[in-house]
Amino acid sequence: MATYKQIQAWIKENYGFTAKTCWIAHIKAENGKTDRLAPNRIDPLERKHPCPPQKRRAVEEALRHFSII
Predict the structure, then answer these.
(1) What is the pTM of this model?
(2) Among positive and negative, which fits the CA dihedral 52, 7, 60, 28?
(3) Long-range CB contacts (< 8 A, 24+ apart) of 59-62?
(4) What distance in Å separates the CA atoms of residue 34 and residue 45, rounded to the nearest whole number?
(5) Which of residues 57 and 45 earns the better pLDDT score?
(6) Among 1, 2, 58, 52, which residue's Cα sits nearest to residue 22?
(7) What percent of the chain has pLDDT over 90?
(8) What is the distance between the alpha carbons of residues 69 and 67, in angstroms, rounded to a whole number?
(9) What is the distance in angstroms between the CA of the first residue and the CA of the last residue of the chain?
(10) Dihedral sign, Cα of residue 5, residue 38, residue 59, residue 21
(11) CB–CB of 45/10 below 8 Å?
(12) Cα 65 off chain centre by
């Protein structure tokens, strides 16, 4: 499985921006690819930095590229 750094590098190369790791985690969680919540998460029902709608397509494409979703 690809690391977050590899996913970020792929997005940077193909889309020209660096995705935040929390955006990647958000998309993975929406697709059922996470097992648990982070132990340091303040509010389990709310994300502090959800993936913005305009960046969602790029993050999803990167996850598909690495066969994560």
Answers:
(1) 0.90
(2) negative
(3) 59/7, 59/11, 59/19, 59/23, 59/24, 59/27, 60/27, 61/14, 62/7, 62/10, 62/11, 62/14, 62/19, 62/24
(4) 15
(5) 57
(6) 52
(7) 77
(8) 6
(9) 11
(10) negative
(11) no
(12) 13
| Nearest Cα residue to 51 out of 35, 36, 29 | 29
- DSSP letter for each residue of 45-67: T--SSPPPHHHHHHHHHHHHHTT
pLDDT in tens, 36-53: 888 888 888 889 999 999
* pLDDT value at residue 16: 96
Q: Which amino acid makes up residue 10?
A: W
What's the confidence (pLDDT) of residue 57? 97
